[in-house]
Amino acid sequence: MVAGPLVAASFSAVLILSGTAGAEDEGPASSKGGKAVDEPPAGVRLTTRLPERISVDNGSKKTAITATVKNEGSKDSGKIRLLVVGFDGLVVKNVEGCSAIPEKGLPEGSNSGFACPIDNLAAGKSKSYAVDATYDLGKTGKICLPVQTGDGKKTFWQQGPVPFGTTNPSPDAPATPLLLGTDNKPAGPGRKELPKTGPARDLLPLGAAGASLLAAGAAGMWWSQRRRTGRQAG
Known about the structure:
Distance between the termini: 18 Å
Order of helices and strands: EEEEEEEEEEEEEEEHEEH
Protein name: LPXTG cell wall anchor domain-containing protein
Largest sheet: 8 strands, antiparallel
Organism: Streptomyces djakartensis
Strand content: 35-45%
Keywords: Signal
Region (Disordered): 24-45, 162-202
Radius of gyration: 17 Å
Signal peptide: 1-23
């Protein structure tokens, strides 16, 4: 079962590696757009981090992102899972060591997602995942990092959906740097009208799974109870 509420930054030089904007382009990690949701076990405090900047290869549309989950508490987390979900122009293609979320389990409005099971995250420790993605620079793009119990019944923390984007497009450059927490403004004449943003735009019901996803700035996100409903119906 999947869902999630989904992050802002500063520029520097762009490095292109094998047609993909590499992790070397990423700025400092940030928890921008994150919010605690369900109460975690005593002594456990889970948060996530995303890079403050990424860069997108203007030819291949590829980009690389590092997603990090950290236990800032004083006790071990027990079994948890990190979700990495893409929205709009940002499509998550692979997350190292994680499994793709079935299409029917994705939040409405999202286009891709991966689930990363973690047996235990010790107090003070963190775990990072290499995320391969593409970004259509003609659109806005968002990402979401919920941290849940291993069975997905509770969400302790969710970062996003938060945008990556730029207000100063560089279509003639080899790559375009994007900042966390910035709505993308596509360049070029005749571009399509951008999707509207704001509270109404960011309230995304989890259609097939029967849950709802509250975006950044909202009170939090709530996971669907689809499996429980299915058992009752059966």
